[in-house]
Amino acid sequence: MANFFEELKRRHVIRVGIAYLIASWIIIQFVDVIGPTLELPVWLDKVVLILLAIGLPIALIMAWAFDLTPQGIKPAGQLKADESLGSNTGRKLDRIIIVALVLALGYFAWDKFLATPVEVVSARAGTSIAVLPFADLSAAGDQEYFADGISEELLNLLAKTPNLRVAARTSSFQFKGQNQDVQKVAAQLGVETVLEGSVRKSGNRLRITAQLIDGRDGFHIWSETYDRDLDDIFAVQDEIARAIVTALKETLGIAAEMTAAEMTIPTLNMEAHSAYLLGRHSLEKRTRESLAVALESFRHAIELDPNYAPAWVGIGNTYQFLSERSYGKMPHQQAIERARGALDRALELDPDLAEAQASLGIWYSNRGDAANALPHFKRAIESNPNAAQAWHWYSLAMNSIARFDEAFDATQTAAALDPLSMIINHNLAGALIARGRLDEAGVVAEKMRLIEPNSYWGPIDSGSIHAAKGQIAEAIMAYRQALALKGFIVVLELSAELANIGLAEAAYETLRGTPLEGVGEIYRGDFDAALVFARANWPSSPGDGMAHGYRGLVELIAGDLATAVSYFEKAQELLGPAMTFDFSVGQAAAYRRFGDQTKAEQTLVAAKVRHQAAIAGGIENEGAAPMAYQRAGILAFERKFSEAFHILRKLVKDGRLGAGLEIDPVFAELREQPEYAQLLADYEAWKIVQQARLKELEAVAAAGGG
């Protein structure tokens, strides 16, 4: 045995073996590093390893069988002991081993201390991240669902991390399929770090690569590659997602613990998940057609997996938006009943699901029940601080109860979490317009046009900005553009501005065939027709507080005071703090004419409280009516006509009066005053100017100039 070992040394078999193993390790590391960059197939690692393993015994056999001599390579068995250049060959092999070791140690040091600079990002509260859709780099391009799924699960897991702001899926998935510069993406999403990655499948093997990039300078912070057998796609997805999240939390210096609830996969059915994603995408567009697609998609997901809680939430949300009071034509009562059934089912399956809690909150909020709505919003936000939709709906609820500062803060939070969401940007623009911050609102409206050029939200907000500036003709053109893009929700604003500049018939035609056709009848002065329509159609359901309020206004105009009071009181019961200013002052006027001065004054006080809360909250223009118009209405009700006329004259001059001057029952007594004739004359002159301007704009548009 000793002689055999000496012979191994003499023939350099041991040296060759050591050199071969070191060289093989370097080759394996090299292939692993360049593989993702050159998009080499996943199976290449396995092939290289097998070839190197096969090569080892061959190298050892060759070292045993042959030796290097001055005459070249000769069979070792034919050489005498003193003929071999063992010492020279040995020294050459030693040099090779030393060089290989230096290379190996150098790579190890680079990989350990330079390639993963964890110290670049220090632990700090408020760290932000966006998870971009992972790219499917498979040759067949058939792993998009897996790539989307792992991206979404990463996003959901990270979103539940305290002190980590995560850009919402709606925004981050806008960049799917786009090879944009990471720094620009980070800037658009308002985040410090960006997580991107890729998925490659070859046979039954998957390679998932993830890398964290500093969005401020574009440098890599962390990266890792995971190779797995594709025996259970969901198990692999879950395992990789958790591994990446754990690594990211450690890298970013935040708590790395994850609860079992955080790791729960809502469905194991890939087709159901795909249908759900399509439903969410369609729901975001908020058109009647897209809502129909959303409902069909969510239903399909439920057919495939009846226990898929997020899909039940999607159904509930879609029904709420299909209501005639929202974006659709479904009777309101039917819509909310179906919505509640779906949301109850979602909460039965997952009581802690943030989306379900937020959706139940907006369900209560839409019924004017802020007391029950707010706890659900708060629970949703506590469960997932990065739930942009929950913040968004929470802001609407805060507005409804006159907590305007909190509402604006929540709107800004939602926009920061989901900066590319059309509906959230729309509400942010509205909040800015209401505060008179028109330049900022214009920036948001322009951003919306860039995000989705064919969406109606951008034109709606542009129209509202023009209206706030008194540029009513421009506002009408923008609203018409929105309507052409299927923004049916804009019909009330468009009709109001048409009536505002004296185009009563056009205002009526805009509302004809809608649930608000009766308002169009009022605009054109046919109060009898308005009354007939209102009594036949308002309210369409017992829980529709807004329709009760409109019915009260029509009955007040018609002079049926007892009926008007009953409908106003029902509206107040249903809407609660969300009772609009027009309804409140109209209710006060009805009480006064009915002879109940005490209730009239009490109701007016409530309207004034909300008015003052809006002013304190920075509101310059609450809803469609300027705050000055509301103030004039209060003064007119209090019979302070001189002060009311002073405000109204300025509104006429600024182009912000509105058609309510001629029809609003609050101004009934004011219209009997001597000063009214001159005010009306000034208003009529302004209408002529606006009509002429509208014709100019229409001519330009017809000529293809806009």
Written description of the protein model:
The protein is an alpha/beta fold and 706 residues long. It has four domains: 2-115, no CATH class; 119-263, TolB, N-terminal domain (Rossmann fold, 3-Layer(aba) Sandwich); 270-482, Alpha Horseshoe (Serine Threonine Protein Phosphatase 5, Tetratricopeptide repeat), CATH 1.25.40.10; 620-706, no CATH class. The chain contains 32 helices and eight strands. Strands 3, 4, 5, 6, 7 and 8 form a six-stranded mixed sheet that branches. A two-stranded antiparallel sheet has the order 1-2. Helix 20 (472-484) crosses helix 32. The longest helix has 29 residues, at 86-114. Residues 112-126 and 258-263 have low confidence and may be disordered.
Short description:
The chain has 706 residues and is α/β, with parallel strands linked by helices. The protein has 32 helices and eight strands.
Features:
706 residues, alpha/beta, Serine Threonine Protein Phosphatase 5, Tetratricopeptide repeat, 4 domains, six-stranded mixed sheet, two-stranded antiparallel sheet, 32 helices, 8 strands, elongated
